[in-house]
Design a protein that fits this description.
Helix content is 39%, strand content 26%. Helix 3 runs parallel beside helix 6. The termini are far apart. It has ten helices and ten strands. By secondary structure, the protein is of the alpha/beta class. The strands form two sheets. Strands 6-7-8-3-9-10 form a six-stranded mixed β-sheet, sandwiched between helices.
């Protein structure tokens, strides 16, 4: 099966410092792929390069058979590549409802948007209670709910989540994890996940990649990575 997303020998630099050095990986339609590694390994850089925020120095990013490296971010959004960035990044002065509408800005199917709006309110009842509230007044957990919901409203072909549990209280983190599982299973949504909670990410993932010093060092199923001695020692504390 041809992968939905294929990355070949990708190199990305910040000035003279290499952030990604010859990375190759793939994501197939319907997978939940976990991208794991320590801080500074290049995980967020990779997501930003796929979404067009960062520029590739060389290599290829191929999405649904088309080379897309270095296209501008709005073109990526139009192709269905949606990133929920680390730090939530909601529009603080807009209401919850208007933030959600921004997610659906490029869509031309009002009935589908209405169905998706109802779906995200089922996932996140707290957002329904706060539709008229300014997003900047939400708690950190509520803002993360809003950021994920806004991504769903875009009806992405590929949803990229960057550290969705970062800084959240345990009860909110658990709820966010369950929502990610649910949208993957019920919507068959293709997800590329960067997550600091390695154990949960590998339990949920179809496959996983370990990224170290700007390159992939291990690739395997989530179950196999859980049993890998290096992963256990370096990331799971076993």
């Amino acid at each position: 099966m041809t992968p939905m997303l294929r990355i070949e020998n990708l190199k990305v630099s910040y000035g003279k410092a290499a952030a990604i050095s010859g990375l190759s990986m793939s994501v197939s339609k319907g997978e939940l792929v976990a991208l794991l590694g320590s801080n500074g390994a290049g995980k967020s850089t990779l997501l930003k390069t796929i979404s067009g925020v960062n520029k590739a120095r060389s290599g290829r990013v191929v999405f649904e058979g088309r080379e897309i490296q270095n296209l501008p971010p709005h073109r990526m959004v139009g192709m269905g590549i949606i990133q929920v960035p680390e730090g939530r990044c909601v529009f603080p002065d807009l209401s919850v409802a208007d933030n959600l509408r921004m997610g659906a800005f490029t869509r031309k199917d009002p009935e589908g948007v209405a169905r998706d709006m109802a779906f995200v309110f089922e996932l996140f009842p707290r957002l329904k209670e706060r539709t008229g509230q300014a997003a900047g007044t939400l708690s950190g957990g509520e803002a993360q709910m809003l950021a994920i919901a806004r991504g769903i409203l875009s009806r992405p072909s590929l949803l990229m989540l960057d550290e969705p549990s970062l800084g959240l209280a345990p009860v909110v983190r658990k709820m966010i994890f369950e929502v990610i599982r649910q949208i993957h299973k019920e919507r068959k949504m293709t997800i590329l996940l960067v997550e600091q909670n390695v154990k949960w990410a590998l339990q949920a993932a179809t496959r996983g990649y370990i990224l170290e010093n700007g390159n992939i060092t291990i690739e395997d199923s989530g179950e196999a990575l859980m049993a890998n001695p290096h992963v256990q020692k370096a990331y799971l504390g076993y």
